[in-house]
Amino acid sequence: METQRVYIDDIQHPDDTAIAAAARLLQQGEIVAFPTETVYGLGANAFDPQACAKIYAAKGRPADNPLILHVCSLDMARSLALEWPEAAERCARKFWPGPLTLVVRKRADIPDEVTGYLPTVGIRFPAHPVALALIRAAGFPIAAPSANLSGKPSPTSGRHTWRDLQGKIPLILDAGSCIVGLESTVLDLTSAEPAILRPGGVTREQLAEVLGVVRVDGLEPWRIPKAPGMKYRHYAPLGEMYLFVGSRENIVQVIREEMRKWRVRGKKIGILCTLESVSELNHEWPDFMYAMGSQTRPAEVAANLFEGLRLCDERKIDVILAEGVEESGLGLAIMNRLEKAAGHKLIRV
Ligand code: TXA
Ligand code: MG
Question: What pTM, to 2 d.p., does this model score?
Fold first, then answer.
């Protein structure tokens, strides 16, 4: 299949012709990749199980992993839910449009194939003008997972999406890089206590301000996660990855020792670190060095993380040594993704 890549230059006022063409494809039962503020999504008509099946095929995604339904209004969100709890209303008013997915009981007319045969549905109102224009033009909620091949990090740019899906889908709307760069927070509102199933762009602290206590579920590997997607090993870089946490001085020292150790073994070494550590780590001449952002600006680290991981693979790095960040605020989501990429090889120094 030939994939068209359409560039959207003015993100605030996306070109009507491009949006209309994408919406038409969706209405015809096709799938289309589009930008959101978190990561790129691969979308289909949420009420068309055959169209949604194409998403699973293109990504190589397990069938029990449900899709998030993207909406362009609160009314559209409520129309998908069997019950719309008070907590959902409060979160929606505070964080939508934005990087938060609310899991609620679903209406019977949402196809089971789309929700992994669960009685619930994840709903998100994204904060990206292109995504919103597309949902509006299509006229229905768009079911969409991240637009990566299964097993790769989520795509945070049109380039990532192109690399993963060219030849597999008819159209990619390319609006450059995503501002948040990590997937949405998935919040389960179907049990007595709200629970974060996947940490993401909206932090636990922000949710707690609105909801009181919020549990974080599914982070412990020995538990069976409620978000089916959390049980899959999300992303294994080609190289072996190690994640270091502790004081910055210790991390720098240990990573430098590790570099020397791996170099004698003839390995190609990649470093993912914070801006603060760049010059000290550069002394050891790694084969590839990527600064994700400043320790004092976790949003910057979040936005660049997946790009850094993908570049390590593109450069065929054998060993990735990564500097962890503090696990508060956005740091919880950052560390969740880094730990998964490292296959939980976490070293405290
Ligand atoms: O930011 C995002 O959420 C991006 C953009 C495109 O919106 N989407 C995304 O989708 O990351 P995906 O499919 O890659 O991840 C969705 C996660 C999976 O772990 C899935 O299992 C979980 O949300 N999920 C979806 N519906 C659910 C439900 N009804 N109950 C529990 N978990 C659900
Ligand atoms: Mg995904």
Answer: 0.96
